[in-house]
Amino acid sequence: MPLGKRMLHISLLSVFLTGACLIASAQECAVLSTGACTSPGARCTADTGGISRCRTVILPEEPPDCRCIGGAQPPQTRPYTLECVENYPAGVNDLPNSCDNTDRFDARISQFGGWQRLFYWKESNAWPQDWMETNLVSGGLDANWVDDPAELSVWSGHGTGSSNEPDGTWSLVFGITRNGTSFATSPNQVHLGEVGTDPFGGNGRNRFVIMDASCSAIEGELSQVWINGSGQGGIFMRLHQAMAFHDSPDDSDDRLENFAEDVDNGDTNKASWLDNGESCFLFWCWNSPLIMSFDSTSAGANTRHNSESLKNILARPSSFAGSFVWTFIDNGSC
Fold first, then answer.
1. CB-count burial class (<10 Å; 0-12, 13-18, 19+) for 49
2. Three-state DSSP class for 309?
3. Which residues pair with 192 in a beta bridge?
4. What is the rounded CA–CA span in Å between residue 127 and residue 121?
5. Phi and psi dihedrals of 229, rounded to 5?
6. Which pTM was predicted?
7. Residue 16: count of CB within 10 angstroms of its CB
8. Are 187 and 228 in contact (CB under 8 A)?
9. Contact between 243 and 267 (Cβ < 8 Å)
10. What is the pLDDT of residues 52-92, one digit of tens each?
């Protein structure tokens, strides 16, 4: 694939089919006559410095419902974004099962009804800027990919851990360097679910995030990384729930699929994540899954924590300031 291009797998796109939806202007190249995008169905966005990059649309076999990129979604349809990396540069261990994990999750959640995959970035197509706050970081693109229009975002790949945890920061680690970085870091760059008059532009929509990665939710730094950040909020803005790990989990190929299956069978997110995030053989267990829930009141946070799921979605918190509750299984920490 030519440098600067990445494939876009989008499940619903009607601009080629019914004409009922148009691609939002923010998603189009400012000038299409430059030759930056020449293949059929290509669209492009301005990268840092105004450089365009093409995303080729792969149309589904069946005519889809109406879906506008960056626009309103069909009633009862909630979009989700997946990103994964298996192959890392020399000196960083590869994760041969990361994308198998998200592949299987994608196949299982598509059976729910009510959820629809919107974007799925793999390997060099997964960029750190996709997770960076658009209204805070130069070149940040979260308002296009993982925070709006996505209501669920999933990362499967490496996360940072230091020799002196907790150190107050955490990063998603990507397989390529893009615009000078291979990391998207909280609390200074990653903020999800902000709406209305919340800090960082209020242009979020995310409700759930899964960080299937090492050291993504260490109890001693939840305040800095997830809750308070630099004073305006961490990863959690008005997210409903986050599912992550207190330690460095094994390179599983099916825990996300099993999580989705149990939710589909009636489990809460909490019960399913804790059950499927942990692995055991006889009396030996490993992996330390953690789930965190948020609401504007402590009673609301507890209700959400114990009853919400991807199939039983409660109302969005009325403020980005409020109460957090979390539960984790302790089989060790980073």
1. exposed
2. strand
3. 236
4. 8
5. 60, -135
6. 0.80
7. 12
8. yes
9. no
10. 334 433 323 222 322 233 333 344 689 999 999 999 999 99
